[in-house]
Amino acid sequence: MLTASNLSKSFGGRVLFEEASLQVNRGNRIGLIGANGAGKSTLFSLILKEASPDSGVIALERNIKVGFLPQENATSGEETILELATGIHAEMEEANRLLREYPDPEDPQHHEGQALFAEYEGHALEAKAKRILSGLAFRETDFNRMARTMSGGWIMRAHLARLLVMEPDLLMLDEPTNHLDLESLGWFQNYLINYSGAILAISHDREFLNVICESIIQISHRKLHHYRGNYDDFLQQKAARDEQQLAAYKSQQREIAEIQRFIDRFRAKASKASQAQDRMKQLARMVRIEPPERAESTVHFRFPQPARSGQRVARLTDVKQSYGAHVVYENLNLEVERGQRTVLVGPNGAGKSTLLKILADMLPLESGTYEHGHNTLIGYFAQHRTEMMDLKKSVLQEVMSISKPVAEQTARTILGSFLFRGEDVFKSVAVLSGGEKSRLALVKLLLDPPNFLLLDEPTTHLDMPSIDALIGALKQYDGTLFFVSHDVYFIKASATSVLHINAGHVTPYAGDYDYYLEKSGATSEKAALVAPGKTAALSNYQPQNHANTTPVTPKMGLKEIKALRKVEAEKRKAANKIRRELEKEIATLEISITDLEVEKKRLEASLEDSASYENGTTFQLNRELSAILATLERTTCHWEQLTTKFTQEYSESLLTKED
Predict the structure, then answer these.
(1) pLDDT at residue 15, as a whole number
(2) How many CB atoms lie under 10 A from the CB of residue 198?
(3) Which DSSP symbol is given to 514?
(4) Which of 15, 24, 211, 621 could form a disulfide with 2 if both were Cys (CB 3.0 to 4.6 A apart)?
């Protein structure tokens, strides 16, 4: 399907790779990894013919469809989300025009319209796009919204939906998980597991690579290194390969040293001169074993220790916060103490990012109070990096614009440790990649260290060595840390306590993430991040009343409270049973739709085969296809009704997309 042979590419004298080779066959699932700047995105641009290699050849099989999702900044025009997701609406409009203007079945223009309609699967395209958009967490009311009115992250999701609708033979993804929440990420991973085409994905998400990939290609030291298996397999194989290579390298070095000693000792002696010459020829012919690769250049830093805060860092009292009619918090009470290292978890839309913004003084309170502790200095690392940066400034200017300016040499030294070297410091912030913006945001925090650090998805766009370096720095940090992350590896290494958020309730767990997993009864490490959690809150967190529950009043006795809670538990149990049955029915319909689409494609392929005309089976095939299309339409309509019902009754958290 794709073959790249002896590729070499350099920029400004810097060699990204040389004599590199790559082959992608049908059905392959390949993860492409490497440090920021190693050449991953450049390799994609070469495959897509957006750039040319200095040498080497890239060959794509004829007539294959290639789909590409960029890392960020995908554009949108005057189109709705649904139109963007279908991706080929212009062609479909042309097909509909021909069928409308030339209704006579015998007219050649009518035949052309039918062929165009069949080519783009017009009968199923819209339903398929809606199903995929729903999987990526779009609501039905979003389908007809103009794409340009939504955030960049949601536009990226719509572009991802377009690729999945298109079903290219080769799906090329550059950091596809950056703009997905955990629920849509789970759906996306399951979709890719059953995807029929080949996948070539750049990702720094360990779990995504483990779930999706059957092989790993690492770009390192100007070479493409191939490994079989997922990311965990890669780590084991690389360690074993490095160990074997080190042993072979040391053995050869000993042999070389012995031969060289013989040459140095005897080449001047006539009786041994011929033997010395033989040894010299032996050295010249020897294929030298390279030493194991040293670790790639990565970010090495340590937070300067900030000024010590008081024991109580922050206190929220009876806080209310809403987005329009959607109430995120009401009567929220929370105390933060010095030294806490807390990860916020809970369902999407529960209010995790909103709580960070409240604590960062980024949102004015509707009601209630926020008291800062003595000498509290707040640092906020935003989920959307551009919120905290001036895109018109250079990297150096952006760093120099902090509230406590530093000497230019100091700034350039720290920028250098974050891989902004030489002329890189004069790049415009607007042209930086996602990873570069993340590193720049960390530099700004380093130069003005807070003692209350708030991080919203800090590992997004960071490569794996940089994530490890950030973990190392945070272990040395003696301030207070609150953060949101979907990276279980980062969470387990950084958090010593957990705060679960759901429906306005906050429930603390006085232990690390493993403790939270045990106490919450979560089914998996990843699922626990968005699980609704247990309903019981600790005594120092005030319960909140909601329309679907009966309030507990101070006048109630213990027996009345227990009876009330028993009734509420039975109501929740019944509601959960209905929800599970609805989920099961939706899943069954999705399987049926997939089977029907497979059968539809088979029948269409048979109709396109000239043999069907020769053996006279076209009439029967057309009848079968018509029946399949009718069943598919009914099934899809039923699926849409049930998913709409499910969204309306169980997904109120999607009313806001702040989190």
Answers:
(1) 87
(2) 21
(3) H
(4) 24
Asked if 494 contacts 341 with a C-beta cutoff of 8 angstroms, the reply is yes
Tokens of 392: 């018109």
3-state secondary structure at position 94? helix
How does DSSP assign 490-507, residue by residue? HHHHH-SEEEEEETTEEE
Alpha helices in 221-272 (DSSP H): 231-266
Q: Span 624-645, mean pLDDT? A: 78
- For the CA atoms of 72, 75, 79, 84, the dihedral, rounded to the nearest 10 degrees, stands at -50
CA distance between the termini of the chain:
40
Phi, psi of 653, deg, nearest 5: -65, -15
Task: Give the C-alpha separation, 633 to 629, whole Å.
Answer: 6
Alpha helix positions (H), 13-141? 40-47, 81-86, 89-101, 108-119, 122-135
**Residue for token digits 């031969």?**
259
Torsion sign across C-alpha atoms 218, 221, 225, 227 = negative
Q: Which band of pLDDT confidence, cut at 50, 70 and 90, is reported for residue 132? A: very high
Distance CA 100, CA 110 (A): 8
**Residue 433: strand, helix, or coil:** coil
- CA proximity to 430, closest of 398, 408, 463: 398
Q: Pick from 366, 357, 371, 361: which is nearest to 330 by CA?
A: 366
Structure tokens, 581: 């049955």
Q: CA angle, 369 as apex, 367 and 371 as ends, to 5°?
A: 160
Q: Locate tokens 């049955």: which residue?
A: 581
Are the CB atoms for 133 and 85 separated by under 8 Å?
Answer: yes
For 76-102, how does the pLDDT look when each residue is reduced to its tens digit (9 = 90+)?
A: 677 888 888 886 655 666 776 777 788
Sign of CA dihedral 174, 191, 530, 341: negative
Identity of residue 46: L
Largest Cα separation within the chain, whole Å, is: 112
Distances (CA, A) of 309 to 119, 354, 369, 372: 66, 23, 20, 10
Query: Could you give phi then psi for residue 456, rounded to 5 degrees?
Result: -110, 105
pTM to 2 decimals?
Answer: 0.64
pLDDT digits (tens, 9 = 90+) for 274-304: 888 888 998 999 988 878 766 555 555 566 7
Integer-rounded Cα Rg, in Å, for the chain is: 30
**What does 555-569 look like in DSSP terms, one character per residue?**
T--HHHHHHHHHHHH
Using DSSP's 3-state secondary structure scheme, residue 368 falls into strand
DSSP one-letter code for 207: H
User: Which residues, at least 6 apart from 140, have a Cβ–Cβ distance to it below 8 Å?
Assistant: 130, 134, 640, 643, 644, 647
Lookup: tokens for 140: 């039905």
> 192, 199 in Cβ contact below 8 A?
yes
Four-CA torsion 140, 143, 144, 148, nearest 10 degrees? 130
How many CA within 13 A on the CB side of residue 20?
A: 29
Per the DSSP assignment, residues forming a β-bridge with 454 are 380, 482
In sequence order, which residues have a C-beta less than 8 Å from that of residue 504 and are 6 or more positions away? 327, 328, 329, 330, 332, 351, 544, 546
Q: Which residues contact 187 (CB under 8 A, 6 or more apart)?
A: 135, 136
For residue 555, count other CB atoms closer than 10 A to its CB. Answer: 6
CA 399 to chain centre: 27
Query: Which residues are CB-contacts of 566 (< 8 A; sequence separation ≥ 6)?
Result: none
Secondary structure of 383-396 as H, E, C letters: CCHHHHCCCCCEHH
Q: Where are the alpha helices (DSSP H) in 372-448?
A: 395-400, 408-417, 434-447
Host H or E run for residue 11? strand 2-11
Contact 1, 55 (CB under 8 A): no
